[in-house]
Amino acid sequence: MEKIPEASKRRLTLLAALLASFKEEKITSIQMQKMAGIDRSIIRKDISLIGFKGGVSNGYKADELLAAIREALKLPLPEQKRFCCIAGLGKLGAALMQCGIFDESPFKIVAGFDSRVNRTEVLSADFPLYPAAKMETVIPESKIEFAILAVEDDQARLMAERLATSGVKGIVNFTGQVLEVPAGVVVENVSPLLALNNICAKAN
Predict the structure, then answer these.
(1) What is the pLDDT of residues 21-32, one digit of tens each?
(2) DSSP for 96-162?
(3) Which of 85, 91, 111 is nearest to 152 (CA)?
(4) How many helices (H) and strands (E) in the chain?
(5) What's the angle, vertex CA 187, arms to CA 183 and CA 193, rounded to 5?
(6) Contact at 8 Å (CB) between 86 and 109?
(7) Mode of pairing for the β-strands spanning 146-149 and 26-27
(8) Fewer beta carbons within 10 Å, N or C terminal of the chain?
């Protein structure tokens, strides 16, 4: 199998999310184009990159395509839990703790951290909350692989540094800062401001 470009990985990850909730047996590239907003010729090319040969004249078998994408990108199944933490327990971090979006996913939040000790004492969660000073100990002990960064912008770079030093493999960056992290640590920037700028660029 040839190396899959990053842009194709992003599109295939989106397709996997759509297929996971798709209820019909077969799906066509036209349906995927409507659902994902991606041109069907690009979808077909991306699918060819993972070596999937299960296409039929009237579409793809949805469950087989989903399984092929998951295998090619090493996406975990819902029962294959990957441990995560939230760094920053302000309004955004607290909302992420309580919203329940991780409940049916493979990603399990097992710790929360904040540089303000009082935040860890006044908040309640289904997992332990710690002062940021304990990150370097708790993250490796708890086998935490990924972190959600939700601190104030002026703390973002320092906290990202500490997360990387503590052993996380990837950071979902909700802050407005561009992060510099060591090789081997992946950053996904999901700032709402960045997303809005991307929408503006596409809409104009």
Answers:
(1) 999 999 999 999
(2) HHHS-TTTTSSEEEEEEEESSHHHHHH---SS-EEEGGGHHHHHHHTT--EEEE-S-HHHHHHHHHH
(3) 91
(4) 9, 9
(5) 145
(6) yes
(7) unpaired
(8) C
Q: 171: closest CA among 81, 163, 88, 14?
A: 163
- pLDDT of 198: 80
Contact of 191 with 174, CB cutoff 8 Å: yes
Strand segments (E) across 18-104 = 26-27, 55-56, 59-61, 82-87
d(CA 33, CA 38): 5
Reading phi first (left if > 0) and then psi (alpha if -120 to 50, else beta), residue 178 is in: beta
Query: 170-192 pLDDT, tens per residue?
Result: 999 999 898 988 889 999 998 88
What is the b/e burial string over 92-131, where b = at least 16 CB atoms within 10 angstroms of the residue's CB?
bbbebbeeeeeeeeebebbbbbbbeeebbeeeeeebebbb
Give the predicted TM-score (pTM) of the model.
0.86
The burial class, CB within 10 Å (0-12 / 13-18 / 19+), for 75 is middle
Q: Which residue has the tokens 């009082």?
A: 118
Mean pLDDT to the nearest integer, 85-112? 92
